[in-house]
Amino acid sequence: MLVRDSAAGPEVFLQRRVKAMAFAAGMTVFPGGGVDPSDAQAEITWAGPGPAWWGERFGVDEARAQALVCAAVRETFEECGVLLAGPTADTVVSDTSVYSAARAGLERRELSLGQFLAAEKLVLRADLLRPWANWITPTVESRRYDTRFFLAVLPEGQRADGATSEAQQVLWCTPAAAIERWKAGTDVLLPPTWSQLTAIGEYSSTAEIFAATPDFEPIQPVLTTVDGKPRLQFPNNERYFADLPDGSRLRGSQPAD
User: pTM here?
Assistant: First the structure.
């Protein structure tokens, strides 16, 4: 979840996925993706909380924790051109356009994050990330994921873009505006995305969001039956379904209209 301050309050960067995607096609989501094998093997100069700190919060070993953090940094760069790294442990690059060729190489898996950072003599800034939530795809889905949500504030001088083959449209908007777009049927939000937007919408600045310490217990929605109809159970699900636009498709593996 990439956030920035604005006159209207904190804004979040969102992408509408192309309809050809196998999962969450046409849905509006945060940038992200899967862990690559090279993320765990990378020899990286690292600033901020180390893999042990992240592993404690994620409930995984250090190797897996490093892979998750590296994947978050890599996917953020690949999908929106925002790079959480700098020449030193207390700096961050301000112009990522000079790394456009490397960005393309990362996306094609011709280059690993570790190789890229080493070649450019960059330090991974783990201190610019915060763990936020852990959602696990319901068992009713044909494609299932154990997803860790991270939060980062847009570094000064950098610009998030839509230069990725996975996004049909990108936009910055406040969490409240994003939820209103969903209520109006303009965008489709799966429960995890809606839940994070609802949570960060409670804060008045990115500094407050970044300083927050949300509950990190894993959430796995469960399919039950309510009044003879299937209904997913998850925190605040009644509020979600009360506002769910008519005809909106909830299942992540089904494309949106």
Answer: 0.89
